[in-house]
Design goal:
The protein is mostly beta strands and 329 residues long. The protein is built from one helix and 32 strands. The chain has a 19-stranded mixed beta sheet that branches. An eleven-stranded parallel beta sheet has the order 3-5-8-11-14-17-20-23-26-29-31.
Length: 329
């Protein structure tokens, strides 16, 4: 992981960027992008100002170069800048909607920044990087700030590595589409790899349901409501993460198939691990470090069958007696 990071608000400058499209030999300079559908493979670099929904259709790849800053203007439900309406899986705020492929690969020294364009920036100024039934997506070495959901995947495959998520509603959410019959990605499970990221001061870190994936070597620190929220039938391995300072560290709702091992889960406010009222499945949570070695104290910060006999049990034994260490990039 990384050393403690301060959130830096990106100062407003007049944005310019170069947009390169396949088959286009000249550079086009633009100040703003209003709502639009990309018609060919496209590359963004420099300063990009988004004033409405940007749609990447099937067969099209959007590449974002290292050092690019993408700013989203705050729009509301009355705006004419929404392409597909306001109902799920879309957002009333401006968003990047990907049915094709997104390749946003920064570097350690030249991060890509997705953020609000507003001086008084706040969570949910923009919607999400919204992946809908798309494959081969990469978001790497980026800062994602002030979104409703930083990255939102419905039935999509994406690798999310070495990023910072802060001041969002939820950093990452992913799911199988079960709510909108008839869309091409209906019933398809997301497959998400979340590795070496920092989640801090969001309302929630990572939430998911009915999907597959790996959540490993991330730091979840001081997120308001939860660090990780697994739901329903999800084959997801949660290993080598640091989860601290949230109301609930890891909170499970009807979650089966999730394993929680070799993490540092400590100093969360209500519970380090808790199960919701509908969680009647046991949870594999062995070999984690809870910041203490007193079993009674560990139990106090785990909410499960011992507190309500109708719930499943958090199977946390054996627990570790010292902090888990792993190689940090």
């Amino acid at each position: 992981m990384r050393p403690n990071t301060r959130l830096v608000l990106i100062s407003w400058v007049v944005p310019f960027f170069f947009l390169f499209a396949a088959g286009c030999s000249r550079q086009e300079q633009a100040v703003e992008l209003n709502r639009q559908e990309l018609s060919a493979d496209t590359t963004w670099q420099g300063q990009v100002l988004i004033n409405g929904d940007i749609y990447v259709p099937p067969g099209v790849t959007l590449t974002i170069k290292p050092g690019t800053t993408v700013k989203f203007k705050r729009i509301d439900e009355t705006s004419d800048q929404n392409l597909f309406g306001l109902d799920t899986p879309y957002y009333p705020q401006a968003e990047l909607i990907v049915r094709g492929t997104l390749v946003a690969r920064g570097t350690a020294k030249k991060k890509i920044i997705f953020t609000s364009a507003e001086v008084d920036a706040r969570p949910a100024d923009w919607g999400a990087i919204n992946l809908l039934g798309s494959d081969n997506n990469i978001v790497e070495h980026a800062k994602i700030l002030f979104a409703y959901n930083g990255i939102h995947a419905h039935g999509s495959k994406v690798k999310i590595a070495r990023n910072e998520f802060s001041s969002n509603g939820v950093g990452i959410s992913f799911k199988s589409e079960q709510e909108v019959p008839g869309v091409p990605w209906f019933g398809r499970r997301s497959d998400v790899e979340i590795i070496d990221n920092l989640f801090y001061r969001n309302k929630g870190g990572v939430g998911f349901r009915n999907s597959d994936g790996v959540i490993s070597r991330n730091e979840f620190r001081d997120n308001k409501f939860f660090g990780i929220w697994p739901k329903e039938d999800s084959t997801v391995s949660i290993t080598y993460n640091e989860v601290t300072g949230s109301k609930k560290g890891i909170y499970l709702y009807q979650a089966r198939g999730v394993t929680i091992n070799h993490n540092n889960i400590y100093d969360n406010i209500d519970y380090n691990i808790g199960v919701a009222e509908a969680q009647d499945f046991d949870v594999d949570a062995a070999n984690n470090w809870f910041g203490i070695i007193n079993e009674d104290k560990i139990d106090e910060l785990i909410f499960d069958k011992k507190d309500d006999p109708d719930l499943g049990e958090v199977l946390y034994k054996p627990f570790l007696t010292k902090k888990v260490e792993w190689e940090r990039p």
